[in-house]
Write a structure and sequence with these properties.
By secondary structure, the protein is mostly helical. It has one domain. Helices cover 72% and strands 0% of the residues. The protein contains 18 helices and no strands. It is globular. The two termini are 33 Å apart.
Length: 457
């Protein structure tokens, strides 16, 4: 358990207190802008720029101020920076060698975004490393969750009015894309479950679990199969670590759990049956199911040859193979950052897989660098960090592996609502665990020295 005796810096350390509160406010601005900020334009380069991009210079400065806090994750940062440096060098070589259907500025954009999101990881890791007790950590995670609340109410509004604003189903305030909408609710699931892990009171713990289930339903209604699969994978991985002792919980809090279940079923009945019945064009429950995203109803595992994503993967890799046939070295080095843009001849994320994107942009060497960077992150979270009673390590491992599932069907590291939020949550979780491990090690050393001194006496 995180030590709850240490308090927030007081008058004797005003500078540290100011830095702490500034980073807290700035973390909320970054998260809110990633989740809620609209694009600055609907076409061209501005389509990929949001408010958090304008805040980025200050984020860099704030991260540099806390540079010493990043030593524990140095190997992770070096591994990813080597990958990005490699992609940048290959991009310059291929672009000026004739692969210039798309401008250099456009092709370097995903590289800059990846670096930006990695800086988010550093910032949130440094910030979490300044947290001293469980109460502070809980307050910060709740404040982060507040950034997701407007989209929860917006999703509820769409269900109540029986009018979906997304491309296939539910949308969020600033997106109609099923992938981006689903990814926001997917990350909201993780935050709710994280709050459930660190909440000591079982009745409040049940409330956060209930909200995570609501978010899961919203993921399904958004029509994003990738986000739904990632969410299910996250729940499956997390289920391997029981949240509470089920038998004891039912015995002590059976009435509370029953109340939550009844409330949920009542709300579901009202939303699915009662409210739609007031619509003049209501035609019974069949209309309800017709409103569900056709993405799920029409999915046929026995007819995968007609699956759009598989067609995209095949087309992208085929065009890349044609380039390799003419220039064999591209098999080793790829086309560099934005290689898929070069293939399509326009600024579009249409590879529909992070792995396909990595192969095209980095070739064999880039793919190996990518796997190496991911392994550095995973090993750090799995092997070097001690398991805590707060379930933070388990949450990170479940987040990481489910995010890898998500990356199969989307270029997740290139998009703000996937890559940006992933690095934000990773920084918050790993930072606080590292801080706790440092305290445990310090107290262990003090105890060891005390014991040895007493033994000599």
């Amino acid at each position: 358990m995180i030590d709850n005796s240490l308090q927030l810096p007081t008058v004797s350390s005003n500078k540290k207190g100011f830095i702490y509160y500034f980073m807290w406010v700035w973390s909320l601005l970054i998260t809110a802008s990633v989740v809620l900020s609209p694009r600055l334009g609907e076409s061209g380069f501005l389509k990929f720029i949001r408010i958090d991009d304008l805040l980025f210079p200050v984020t860099i400065i704030a991260t540099l101020v806390s540079l010493s806090s990043l030593r524990p994750i140095q190997k992770i940062l070096v591994a990813f920076l080597w990958l990005y440096f490699f992609n940048a060098i290959v991009l310059l070589i291929t672009h000026f060698s004739g692969f210039n259907n798309v401008s250099l500025l456009e092709k370097i954009l995903p590289l800059l975004k990846n670096i930006q999101y990695l800086i988010y990881f550093c910032f949130f890791f440094a910030f979490a490393n300044k947290i001293n007790n469980i109460k502070q950590y809980q307050q910060i995670i709740i404040s982060i969750f507040i950034c997701f609340v407007p989209n929860l109410f917006y999703g509820l509004f769409q269900i109540i009015t029986f009018n979906f604003y997304g491309y296939y189903g539910l949308g969020i305030i600033n997106e109609i894309s099923p992938t981006l909408t689903g990814s926001v609710f997917y990350m909201s699931i993780i935050i709710c479950n994280l709050l459930a892990w660190i909440e000591p009171k079982v009745n409040i713990k049940c409330f956060w679990v209930f909200l995570s289930i609501v978010n899961l339903i919203f993921v399904a209604l958004a029509g994003s199969r990738g986000a739904l699969l990632a969410s299910v994978a996250y729940y499956f991985l997390l289920s391997l670590y029981p949240l509470v002792n089920v038998k004891t919980t039912i015995k002590r809090f059976g009435k509370t759990i029953l109340s939550v279940v009844i409330l949920f079923l009542t709300a579901l009945f009202i939303l699915v049956v009662i409210i739609p019945s007031f619509h003049t064009d209501y035609e019974g429950s069949s209309e309800i199911f017709n409103q569900l995203p056709n993405r799920y109803l029409e999915l046929n595992p026995t007819n995968l040859e007609n699956e759009a994503r598989l067609d995209n993967w095949y087309n992208v890799l085929s065009m890349y193979a044609s380039a390799v046939k003419n220039f064999p070295l591209l098999a080793l080095f790829g086309l560099g950052s934005g290689g898929t843009y070069e293939i399509f001849g326009e600024l579009i994320n249409a590879a529909d897989s992070q792995f396909v994107y990595v192969i095209v942009t980095g070739g064999l060497i880039g793919f190996l660098l990518y796997i190496n960077a991911l392994m550095k992150l995973y090993v750090f979270g799995n092997d070097r960090l001690f398991s805590t009673s707060l379930g933070l390590k388990k949450t990170f491992i479940s987040l990481f592996l489910s995010f890898m599932v998500f990356s199969i069907s989307q270029e997740v590291f290139n998009l703000s609502k996937t890559g940006g939020l992933f690095w934000i949550m990773s920084g918050l979780i790993l930072g606080i665990i590292c801080k706790q491990n440092q305290k445990n090690k310090k107290f262990s050393n003090i105890y060891k020295l005390t014991y040895e001194s007493e033994s000599r006496n």
